[in-house]
Design brief:
2 domains
């Protein structure tokens, strides 16, 4: 067995939910973004409609795959869906707020650097908080 296959086998174990969470995140981002770009460019829909539908499909994929693949949850749908929405919105608001505060730290002459830093900080914070929220609140098994 090659070392790569041993590494992948260890990372894909049931206990490594964070790696699975990241895989689901990449997949739902690619699908959601593809839908957004298709609707915006090929279907000539507005930016708002395109991003709303693309993000909605991405969130749906995220919910379904995190429920079945990442956390293998048996929790009831009627309790997990509202919790999922609460976690997603809370993570977005918190990461946006922290990123916005980080923008104020940098000097004005480094506008590109500070905006890029804020985006990366917000994305990292969103990912970590979202994982914790999904694991400990949305799909928590008793």
């Amino acid at each position: 067995m090659s070392s790569l296959s041993v590494i992948m086998e260890n990372y894909l174990k049931r206990t490594n939910t964070f790696f699975r969470f990241l895989l689901v995140g990449v997949l739902n981002t690619l699908i959601g973004l593809s839908i957004m770009l298709f609707l915006l460019n090929a279907a000539e829909m507005s930016y708002w409609i395109s991003t709303f539908i693309g993000n909605g499909v991405g969130a749906l994929i995220s919910y379904l795959l995190n429920r079945s693949f990442t956390f293998q949850s048996k929790a009831k749908w009627n309790s997990t869906i509202p919790r999922f929405i609460i976690v997603i919105l809370s993570c977005y608001i918190l990461s946006y707020t922290v990123s916005h505060m980080a923008l104020r730290i940098f000097e004005e002459d480094h506008i590109l650097l500070k905006e890029n830093f804020a985006v990366i900080l917000g994305a990292g914070l969103y990912t970590l908080l979202n994982y914790l929220g999904q694991r400990l609140y949305v799909f928590k098994t008793i």
